[in-house]
Amino acid sequence: MNPRSIKLVVRHYRSTDIPIRARLLRDAAFEANLNGWGSRSSADAIRAREEHTITDGQWTKRVYTVTKGDGVVVGFCWITSLDVVAAHCELSFAILPEYRGAYGLLVHTAASWYVWNELGMAAVTHQVLGHNSMFVRRSQLNRYATLVSRNDDNTAGQDRDAFYWTEDRKQFLDAFECAEQRWSQLKDRLRTKVEVAS
User: SS in 3 state form for the chain?
Assistant: First the structure.
């Protein structure tokens, strides 16, 4: 699959996106990976914080909205720990509940292409809390992580380990190429089974 064929758009986060992001911030599965701020906050408090992110918070947290080609929002990605001199950042993303599973990998890929190609980053740090299996299984975390920070985060009164690793552009492209090859092999196997069955 050519990355240009992915029909997702990464665009700047807008005030009109806040109600959609507020719904995500209150989603139980998403909240389990954060500190519960969204479910404890009023709609006004969420709007104020998100407006601040848009108007004054760009140097500490840059949020993007990810949409399908027709403009329907499927999720968000954001970069933090932005170091423009070293061309390094941390990339995070979250998918709206109704698009999880189908769009997770696509959003990750679109966000990554944006960070590498549009922002010119040389390296990206990934951080996943150990209990978060929405996108990466625990066995994968153990394989990817170059640093495990024990009790790094406290969510809902529970200490969580955080797994960190850094990826450069070549590593991302190599992983993308491997995924393309696996997808092509799977399509060939499926095509063969369909031909044999018919």
Answer: CCHHHCCEEEEECCHHHHHHHHHHHCCHHHHCCCCCHHHHCCHHHHHHHHHHHHHCCCCCEEEEEEEECCCCEEEEEEEEEEECCCCEEEEEEEECHHHCCCCHHHHHHHHHHHHHHHCCCCEEEEEEECCCCCCCCHHHHHHHCCEEEEEEEEECCEEEEEEEEEEEHHHHHHHHHHHHHHHHHHHHHHHHHHHHHC
